[in-house]
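Lab notebook, page 48
Experiment: co-folding of the full assembly
Goal: obtain a model of how the components sit together before planning crosslinking
Operator: M.T.
Materials (sequences as entered):
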Amino acid sequence: MRSAAVLYCNMLVSLKRIIKAGWKNFCRNITPNLATIFIMVMVLIFIASLFLLNPISKILISDLQKKIDVSVYFKEEALPDEILKVKSEIVKIPEVKEVEYISREQALEKFIERHSDDPVLIESVTEVGYNPFLASLNIKAYQASQYEQVAKFLETGPFKDLVDKIDYYQRKPVIEKVFSLTQAINKTGIFLATILGVIAILIAFSTIRIAIYNSGKEISIMRLVGASNWFIRGPFLIQGIIIGFSAAVVTLLITFAVCLVLDSRVAVIAPDIKLLTIFASNFWKLFLVQLATGIGLGVVSSLIAIRKYLKI
Amino acid sequence: MISIQNITKIYPSHTATGDKPAVALDNVSFEIKKPEFVSIVGKSGAGKTTLLKLILAEEKPTSGSIIFDDIDIHRIKKSQLPKLRQRIGIVFQDYKLFPTKTASENIAYVMEVMGAKDEEIQRDVSQVLELVGLKDKADNFPNELSGGEKQRAAIARALIHRPELILADEPTGNLDPYHTFDIIRLLVKIYELGTTVILATHNKTVINSLGKRVITLEQGRVVKDEERGRFIL
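Observation: model returned without errors.
Model output:
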């Protein structure tokens, strides 16, 4: 019982000495340590931007998708009641988000409103002598990929005789482009993130390795004067933790400053994107990921780099 | 205390450089009692440093064994090496002080490693600094010390934890004659206090002035082992 207490007490003393030595090492080698923190901040800023760009790209993509729709034009003889019946059928399709009915009169009004400053166009419509516009249903689906199904339903369904044209096929290239763009952005994002992430981690790792390489001889002497492996590793791990923690805090401050400066400017271009809100809602997740990456990198790199000097 | 039994150390050949295998020690055997002051002498390359490295278990012998108080030091587990090394103090020709620690931190490190209490460390470091005459240099870093001061700090580090054995590998190799005798006097004092000292050197004047046991190595073999030896090659 007593020996267990003594052992516990000795461990506490060793731990205290390891932490103290780690802090002293950090302060006495401040220049290389600041360089390591700088490199690690680069890595963490990269991770932070990926983290913040993910919700931003989602907002941008959904914005883009909202702007896509498909219009079905009905033949002149189709009655409003019949069209409304078609509308109620289309609404039942699970992929359809919303359907808007635009009557022939509304279509004309919209045309006049849109081209009010172009008297030639307005005059030509008046000269025709009758309303040349067709009634239409404006359909929005949840996803760009679902328009094809909706178009097929209208073409082959019970209402095909009422339908004059579906402008899905005219817009198909645009819709498909948005669809493939969305996928490409996601794929490229993941690919770039992986490659750059690996490069960044390797750079941080070699910076720490070089820092420990300079202490190689010192580590060998520590072994020769009877220090155990953990007593030698400890201060380097503490140093790694201090570097990782400092880098995480610096990165968080930089990210906050960037969000603060860009918030109002981005809001002008894309009102849906509120950088500060995104930053605030991701704050803890961001901080924890940065902390884990920073400390993880510091500790793992130190452990690997120190290994070869402990063989004596 | 230490029994060197048929120790042979051969460094393997390097095919890249075309070097042949080098025999550093060839069937070396002798015993050292407790306490004893033993000088190992010989030309450069005679095997003095290799022998000390083997005693410290820094390297493994090709054959033979070294028994330190009934422990075969090359057969114990790697995790037990620190405990063994804590019983030995070591002094190198190039001092090997920790450059980022002050003189007193360098000396205190060994006691910290052993888990001594803070008050004990403070008291002993101050005493040892006094003994080696470095009291006013306690807070200086190694690059602020002269060669003689660095070696005295290294000796202080080697003896602070009262080891049973001190290995001194050419401790005066980088020093002028005045500092050389300063260091040798210190080692003799440590021996007189009851610690075994193994001194490897090729300094003729030092050996001849000591009048203690001398083991002479030549091309990795023991060619002479005299109780009150002299440096004759």
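Interpretation: The radius of gyration of chain A is 33 Å.
Next step: discuss with group before ordering constructs.
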